Structures are given as structure tokens and as C-alpha cells.
Records
---
Amino acid sequence: MTGIDEIVVQPPHTATWLVHIDRSMWVGGVRGLMLQALHPLAMRGVWQNSDFQEDPFGRLRRTADFVGRVTFSSPEEADEIGRRVRGIHRCLRVADPGTGRSHRVDDPELLLWVHCAEVSSYLEVARRGGLRITDAQADRYLGEQRRSATYVGLHEEDVPGSLGEMRDYFTGMRPSLRVIPESAATVRFLLWPRMPHDLRFLTPAKPAYFPFGALCYYTLPRWARRMYGVLPEVPRATVTAALRAFRLAMNSVPETVHDHAFMPGTRDMLAGARERLGGAGYDVSKGLKGLTDPRRWPSGLRPTG
């Protein structure tokens, strides 16, 4: 890769770049949280060890920061946030009121569920929203995400790395899933969240958020929506059309404007990625999103034929 892997964790020619630079990620992120909440122990782990009840939108932004850093930052930055996350998880426990047992938050089963719910949501939403990715590219994306899973403490060989493996994983997990009170509350929070302090200026526009939250909910698998039963069903075609309209609108927002949705540290990290890639010969005049066009890559990395 001509040394570009020493500049960013996932270079612009990877399938991960195509998915993670797409603005449909906002829908995929919330969908992922809703899906994760169906695992009782994983949900209680979040509930007992975070401020999710007070700031669910903040959880989404912190997740966006982690995903951004293990995608667009330097390998050193990715390693650092991985060590930080593993250190935090190592100290946390979750109490299971049904058995009275205490479990480690970094239990591999819980980490794997969170990972799979997250990355499958990103991929499913992006493809359904109109991002043109072949099945082979989707397999590559999931294979690349095995590396990302190591930052939270998983082993690559234990993580589904293809569409078929991911389907088999969810089929095997479904008997273990159910809606507990915390799960139901999570969906309600995500449909109508409290705004974090630095975004309180958006509070007057909060009613406009509900359609977004509903869109995230409706992109869940049918079996998951049946388990929740929070909103009445609508035609699949309607959801797909709404998702495509959202993606088109969000992808038209200038990168400098869009990045204000992130935490300050994330914005600094993205600015650093642009600087490093520009120094490596990439044309970053259209921002990081512009690098989905191979014509903006250094000549030695452009596809031939």
C-alpha cells in the first residue's frame, strides 16, 4: 500500500472508507444502538456504567469518535484509543438481576455482540440507502472490520468476516435476545433524546428529530421491530425511499459544516487526517469524502483499466 497504511488506519481505497465516510452512518449508528439493546446483559452493561439515560445522543457521538479514530486517524492514535477503551472496560462490571451474578463488561460475548450489531448496521443502512457496494465489497468491509474489533479486545478469528458469517451469527444469537425495560427505554430515548449541553441551541428544532429516530427504527430487521413493537409498521419501500432521501441530503452538506456534529476532538482528528493525506499526495480539496473518487488518489494508487 506504498506506506499509506502508516498514515491512516483505513486508506481511501478500502471498503471501510466507502462505508464510514458516508453520511448514512448517522442512521446506522442509531440503528446499531437499538439493535445492541436487545441483548439483555449488554444493555444492562450500558445502563449501569454510563450516563446513557441522561445523554443518549452523547453516546452516539462518542461512538462516532471511536469509529472515526479507528478509521481515519493515524495508527498510533487508533492504538491509543484502543488501549483507553480496553482499560475502561476492564474495570467495569455488570450485574445480572436474574442470576445475581456479576459479569465483566469486556466479556468477549458482549464485545462481539456490540461489534456485530454496529458494523452490520453501518453496512446495511449504507447499501439500502443507495451506496453502491457489491457483495464482494461488503465481504471485504466485514473482513476489514475484524481489525477494528481488536481495538476493543476481540481476536480477529472470532469475528464474522463475511455476509454469510454475519447472517449465521445473528441467526445463532436471536434466541438469546429479548426486550427488557432498559431496552424499551433506550428506544424511547433514541426516538426523543435529550440534547447534549453543547448542542442545546438545537433544542427548538427537536421535534424535527423524531422522523430521524423513526427512520432509524424502521431500518431495523423485521424480527427486531416485532420484538420492540414501538411504532406501527409502514411499507418497506417507504422506508427505503426516506433513507435514500436522507442520505442524499446529508451527503450534500459541506464537510466543514457537517463536521460540527462531532465532538471537538473528533474534528481535530479529521483535520489531522486531511493534512496527512494531503501531504501523501492525495487531493483533499473536496475533503475526506472526495477521496472516494480514485482520481484524487496519488497516481501510483489509482486503479488501472
Note: The longest strand covers residues 93-95.
---
Amino acid sequence: MDDLTATAVPIRQAAPDLNPWPVTIATYNIHAAVGTDGRFAPERVAGVLQELDADIIALQEVPLGGSRTPNVLTMLQEATGFHAAEGPACIRPERRYGNAVLTRYPILSMRTIDLSFGSREPRGALDADINCHGHMLRVIATHLGLRPAERRDQIRRLLQVFDTEEMPVILMGDINEWFVWGRSLRWLVSHFQAVPAPRTFPSRRPLFALDRIWIRPRNRLVHVQVHDSRLARLASDHLPLIAHIDG
């Protein structure tokens, strides 16, 4: 057995009477639980989640079950004891696949947003309202396309659903924008304001800041960092990105 294979144990649970702030959030493209060694190992992803010890985690490239595909989200939910929501972008009898959210706090409602573009690979976003001991957070987990025109169209559609001031909005996921001054990034910055963007891809030697976290209002974002552990470098081709937000 690989000496980095993790035995997943439940992540700490918040007591019901605690003030949630600060809240730790994270985004993680798990690469279908296939590591940089080419091995399918959901237990390693669960081990990375244990290292993160985040309160709310957005996941991308998550196998969600099917006749030929295991449900990795179920495995991760069992390992963490968290609430889970799924947002499949690809739905076929043999394979369901897409975004997900894991959270120690209850999910009050959720919606899926179709971001598919022409004949390109199906894309989407998972939009969830989370109750952090009476403090509401709206979390959108997404994974955008590989082509610039595709991303621009998807960002336009996403920004239309952000037109609300009812609660803080967090957008996080794999934005797939390689260019610092790409138009889609400029649009997001103009809406959410600039935030730190550490490099997360590829995990063994990060060169690109593909994974991002934004929050509105911006002043709630306290700190952003990459989780770069030995296990994280093995478990996926992306490293997780972590942020701390305060009330």
C-alpha cells in the first residue's frame, strides 16, 4: 500500500451553539479521484479533506454514480460526516459527473445552473444556500470550459444569477483561465473585486492559478492560501485552495 494512502476519519463537527465565524472554505478539483500516479483512490481525496479541515468545500470533477461509475461523493460524505449536495453536469445512465459541495452546516436549498456551451463538454454550477448557525451563505461551485469563448459565455450567465444582496455570495471552483488578463477574469474581478490567486495546477509543480475563490462583500475575505501537502500533490492534478472568511 502506498505510504501516502490516507485512512479517512470524520472531520470535526461544530457544536450547534457556536458562532461560526471565521468560516474556512475550500475549492478542490479532485480529478475523478485519480491521482498523479494514475490510480483511482478516493480515500486519498478524503485524506486531503481531513487535512483541510474546512467548513465548506466545493468539489469539481466528481464521479456521482452510474452503471459504470462509483459515487465518489457518497464515499467522501461518509468519510467526513458532512452534508452534501451534488450538481451533475453530465448525466448518462453509465456516468453522472460534475460539481459538489460538502459542508458541516445544513444546506437549506440548492439549484443547478446549466453552463453548457454548444457541443463542448457539458458544464454547470451548483448553487447552494447554507445556514451557518443562522448566518446565511450562498455558495456557487463551478467548473468552467477550456476555450475562451466558452468561459466568457459561462461567466456572463453566472453573473446574471449573482444579482442579489440578500446574503454573502461565494463563487469558487476551477475557472480554467490560463491568462491573467483574460476577459472572463476581468469580468469576475469587476464584480467581486480582486483577490489573491495562488498557483494550484499542476499539483506536483504548480504553474497556473486555475482554481479561484471570490466573495461578495470582499471585506469578508481574510486570507487565501494553497494547501500543498505530500498527499495533496498525489491525490489529484490540482491542489486545493483555501480561504478564511469572517462575519
Note: Residues 148-161 form the longest helix (14 residues).
---
Amino acid sequence: MSVRVRPDACPGVFATHDAADGALARVRLPGGRVSAAQLEVLAGCADELGDGSVHLTSRGNVQLRGLAPDTGELVGRLADAGLLPAPSHERVRNFLASPLSGLAGGAVDVRPLVAELDAAVCAEPALAGLPGRFLFALDDGRGDVAAEDADLCWQALDARTGVVLRAGQPGPAVPLGEAVAVLVREALRFLDIRGSAWRMRELPGFSGSPGRPRPVSPGAFARDDGGQGICVAPLFGELTASQVRSFGGDVVVTPWRSVVVPQFRADLLELSSDTMVSACIGRPGCAKSRADVRADARRVSARAHFSGCERRCGKPRDAVDVVAADGGYLVDGAVVPVDALVDVLAQKGNR
């Protein structure tokens, strides 16, 4: 069992992270769902209180950067928008859900389960003690978020039954109507046995084997009702406030730093990047970063993640590991000079 020597400091809105470019607040979006009215509030907060952008995260949430230390106005705006319904449980509302569920494919629409799970977790006082990194997932049977390293996941097998995954390992079959109760019970059990562990995979016997993630592809998709939607994937998961406002309706933020828009609009195609590269904020936003990783990452198009330090913030599980180091970058552990990155990553992408 892992032994933690420091407390969990995962940021939220009430407890922000003090970054080099100002305070950072993480806003939880259960299942990634956010209404048009809430998008307007997030855009306003980014524009008037932050760095002007909304930053998508690898857990289907958003972050606001460059904030003042006093976040009282931010808290008020987000609370009024319904984005902070349970202050005591704010950091533990980490719920992934299949982003296309109820729109296209899947064995069952898990969107009602997200609301049910959110309410059940927030109604259990003890679960406010979960680490901020503990992750729930509800997979509609397609296997997308079941592969995202959740601590607890209910994955549909058909329209009435699913299986509970603990750190990626299959457990018992659970009927749809009992899914939320079982997940809450398992989370309470984790609290009883976790010691100082933050994640279930840190416990004995839970090494985890979640499989390969299957992101929603950027571009148009066919809805089950015969219409079309679109998924946009901005470079580095960063959207300006005006771009956020341009969605013009309810959307779903995915765990792959993209946004599912139920109604197709051709003008939204320009929001997507044609590269699969990702990167942490790097310099100058993070004092721990050894390089301006986003400037270097813009030169490549491979499925790679650039990290400014060993923490590897936001790294997707299936991306080539590129970490800033003296003399260049460590690429999957081997030192590569900056001027050789394009060729080395292109070779890895062709394997």
C-alpha cells in the first residue's frame, strides 16, 4: 500500500491552487454536462476574473487560471449558476460519463445516473472525506470512460444490467437500478480501508487494468434521432471566452479535452486543432516547469503529451511521454534534443 506523506491538495473553487500565473480554480462538471447559461457564466469569469480562457481538463471538468487570491466573487458567480450545489462535497464531485450517451450509440443512456449519483454522493456526509483525485465513472457500454482509470465504474452490459469495475478490475453484475447504491457503498468501503491512499489502485490487490481509452473523434457525428452533432477539440484544451460563448447551447465536456455539441454547426469546425498533441501549462504559468512546453509542442502533431516536470499534469494514458529535462526532453525515458523532437515523435507515431 502506498503511504502518502502529504495531504491531498487537489484544487477546487473554495481551495484554489497558487500557480505562477495566479490562482487556479477547478470547476467540477458531473458527467461533463454544462448548460448554455452556465457556459456564459464560465466565459464571464474567465474574461473578467481570469486569464480570458476556459481550460478543459482530462476529467471532463474545466479550470480557470490567472485569478486573484480572493475568489469570493468567483464563488458567488458559480454558486448562482448552480455549479456549486454542495460546497462540502465540491472537490469530490468527480463523475465521468460516456459523452455521447443519449445522443449516439451505447446500450443505455447514463445521463440520469449521473444526476442520481451526484445527489447520492452529496447526500452522504462521510463521502466529503474522499480524496479530490477519487474518480467515479458511468459507462454506457461502449467502453470509453471505463478505460479512463476510474476508481469505481459501472459499465452497462445491456439496457438493464452492468458490471462494477474497481480500479479497472471487473466485479459483480449489478442491475441498472442498483448501480448508484452500489457505487456509494463501495466508496464508503474505500474510506474505511484507504489509510493514506488517494486512489483505489494504491491498495493491495488493485493494480488496475482499465484498457485503452477510446476518445470521441473530433468532427461531425450522427445522432440516433437522425440529426448530426459535432465534437470540437481545441489545441491544448484551451478555449477563449468568446469561443465558449459561440457554442450557443448545452454541451458536454469530455475527458479528452474536447467538447460535444449536440447540434452540428459548420462554423465550429474551426475550433478543432488538427494535431493530437497535448501539454501541461508549462512556463510561464507554472513555476515548476523547466520549459515553455506548449511552444515546443506546437511543432509536432504526434499523439504525445508534453510535461514541464515529472508530475506530468493532465497526461492522457495512451500518449507518448515527453518530459522537459536538461538538454531537451525525455521521450519515453530517452533524452532527445529539442531540434530532434519532430523526427523522433514522427517515428514513434508510425510504429
Note: The chain has a mean pLDDT of 93.
---
Amino acid sequence: MFLADMLNRKLKLPTAAEALPGRATALPTAETHFVNGQPLKGPYPEGCESVVLGLGCFWGAERKFWTLPGVHVTAVGYIAGLTPNPTYQEVCSGMTGHNEVVLVVFDPAKVSLEKVLATFFESHDPTQGMRQGNDSGTQYRSGIYVTGAGQQQVAEAARSAYQDALAKAGVRRTITTEILEAGPFYFAEAYHQQYLAKNPNGYCGLGGTGVSCPLPTGVAATA
């Protein structure tokens, strides 16, 4: 019974009264990207945009995006929770409300947000609620965290397009991806950054539905 209660607890977001207190200072993290050498916290080139994406364990998720042409830099961290400056262990407890996510900084002249989101939907199963594959908990939920109304519209169109693609493929499940305005993004600890570049045989944890995500009608794949 105790184990079942723990598992059920991890599938529910905590209330503000339940959430861990956290800390006032940011956790130390890496200064530069292990693969491309770009500064994780910027400054980023003029014209770049950023979006934050949650699609399961962030080790495998991050690699999907640093290999995408047009992406300037990526970093892993935590978003959409209640606890300030949480640690990885605190996030995994289910008592911070955060999602494990990837910050994707990209040049829209080289790769569109639509293409970034197509990669997002094709790289995991966005119908699983508070889990991804064998990984279970609120930190593994599917999420798109946007900056501004324009990104919100693109994200909602991409979600609808992929829901239609799933239906046409005979997948009768509803997408559970949350689309929210990006709040505070907390960079994860240094050892998590670009983890699979440092540990090529490390755990990835990503799966997918095998269904391609079409770009919304009239949207080009780049720019």
C-alpha cells in the first residue's frame, strides 16, 4: 500500500502548500555546451528564439535538438513548477511540480519553430500523461513552454496537426501535451548537460509513436 501511495503521489502535481521550499540561489551548472562550445546562458546571437520542451528524460531529449541544423545551443533544466532552484533529486521526488525539459535556442532563419516542434512530437509519445515509456512521474510529462502569443499559436497548430496524424494512423489516444507560457527556467546541474555526449552509452529513455508530424498547412520546413 505504501509503494502504491508513493507512485500515485508522483503522478499528481503538488499544491503550493505541499511543494518543497527550494533555495534562493541558482545551482551551479556548466558554462558552455559540451558539444559546440556555445555559452549555455548566452548571450545568444541577435535574432535567435528560444522554446522549452518536455518529452521525458532530458538526457535523450536534449540530443534530439543539439543535432538539429539551425539550433544554436541547448541546455537541460526544470520548468513549470513551484520550488525555486530545485535539485534533480527534488524534482524526481515529485514534490516541486517541475518538468524535466530542454531549452532550445534556434535561428528561425535556418530552422522554423514548426520544424523544431515536429521533431518534438516525433521523438516521444505525447499521449501518456505523467510518464514517458518506463519513466513515471510528473517530471516526465509532455510540455511545450512558449515565449509570446506567436509561439503559442504555432504550438497549438502543431499539436492539432499531430493529433490529426495520429487519428489517420489509427492511434486512438488523446495528446496530453501541455502548452504554457514559459515561466522561470532553472538550469540543471552540470553533469546533466549534454549527458549523452559525455556518456554515449547512457540511458536515453525516449520512444515515439512511429507517426510523422506534419507541418501545419502553408508552413515551410525552414525559415
Note: DSSP finds six helices and eight strands in the chain.
